[in-house]
Amino acid sequence: MLIQEAQREMRATFLGGFAGQGVSGLIWLLSAALSTWVSPPAGIWTLVALGFFTFPLTQLALRAMGRRPSLSRENALNGLAMQVAFTLPLNLPLVAAATLYRQEWFYPAFMVALGTHYLPFAFLYGMPHFAVLAALLIGGGVLIGLYGLGPFALGGWLTGLVLLAFAFVGLAAARRENRAV
User: Fold this and answer.
1) CA-CA distance, 45 to 68, in Å (whole number)?
2) Residue 16 · residue 170 · CB < 8 Å
3) Could you give the number of structural domains in the chain?
4) Which range marks the domain in which residue 137 is found?
5) Which are the contacts of 168, defined by CB distance < 8 A and separation ≥ 6?
């Protein structure tokens, strides 16, 4: 299978990232809401705990939409996709260290970690908008962290909204491609 074919299957299977980013965006918004109206620790633990279930929830969402929830065995990008999936959990100790030093850095640090996680998606999916998403998350996390902008959950709210917006960008691109084929 050629790289372009593998990327096409990635876009078709995961709807341009729609389901995963949609699930992730909703988790971030729930976390931000709990941080805002309950307590910062409630939001922190929600994002960390539910974050581990992003991929299974994505597969569940794809099944609920009547879609196949995984790539074919022949897809040359399976191994890379698995490695990329582990980049975010492997960065959580860094997020934890930042949060233990200064609790207000939780969302900004997580934004940077999530942005670095999304950067290779530009190649995996063959969709450059993932590089834009990565830049927004990394840049936003750095700005909020360095300048202490806004309330504690600002990064959570922004990330949730950006993820949902990009979920629909990916869905529109995947649908356009399917119509063209």
Assistant:
1) 31
2) yes
3) 1
4) 3-180
5) 18
